[in-house]
Amino acid sequence: MCAGCSKESSFHHVNGRMCYECAGCGYQIYPLVGTIMENSKTSLWKWFKAIEMFSNSKNGVSACELQRTIEVTYKCAWRMSNLIRSIMKNGQLAKLTGTIQVDETYIGGKNKNGNGIVNKACVFGILQSNGEVRTFVVKNRDKKTLISLIKANVKEGSVVFSDEHGVYRTLTQEGYKHDFVAHNHYNWQKGEVTTNAIESHWSVIKRSIRGTYVHVSRKWLQQYLDEASFRHNRRHRSKQIRADLLEIIHNSSAAREE
Ligand SMILES: [Zn+2]
Predict the structure, then answer these.
(1) In angstroms, what is the span from residue 4 Cα to ligand 1's centroid?
(2) Which CATH fold topology does 99-232 show?
(3) How far is the CA of 7 from the centre of ligand 1 (A)?
(4) 80 pLDDT band (50/70/90 cuts)?
(5) Which of 148, 152, 168, 253 has an alpha carbon 20 to 30 Å from 73's alpha carbon atom?
């Protein structure tokens, strides 16, 4: 159905442009407008190949890998991977509930000479046992920062497990059931109380940054964290990553038409 003349119609490709035109009334549609592929001169085949790579990879895709596989310049591969990563976000609507693990960590590497840590960023994570994870680059690990993120993302009354970091001890006053493990054990577990799942999410992120991305600047870190959460939250449904990416692209194009 053509949106211009409201008739069943056929559309033909307009030469040299990512545009299709109604044979009846000349109404033109631009299916890529609003999507990450808008304004890109890269072929759709390469885009879908790149999306396929991001869908199938466990730890992410580096720009070098993309450059080699789909044969584009490094600059182009870098731009494409940032655009794909930018849509790998979870809609953060419902608050998490049940048993929650929270933890902070530092992500960042040594500089080129190996002397001293640069770009070290504090990251905070909230993980629902057997459920979703959400992670945030934060300015610091003070009470105001961490507690307000918990309140925004975790339903009151939930059970929250953490390490012994002092700021979490006020969680009880905020309406949560709180318990903690001391970090001086190899296994962060005390009976049912554990932060093992969020700890292993940190290892996945750190391993993938070391292995795939080598290092990540602070500017892009939140996007890498979101990508890792996106994968974690679909970990039992590997085909879901591609389906969701394609749906996000489809919806961004459809939203423009409304
Ligand atoms: Zn028409």
Answers:
(1) 5
(2) Nucleotidyltransferase; domain 5 (3.30.420)
(3) 6
(4) very high
(5) 253
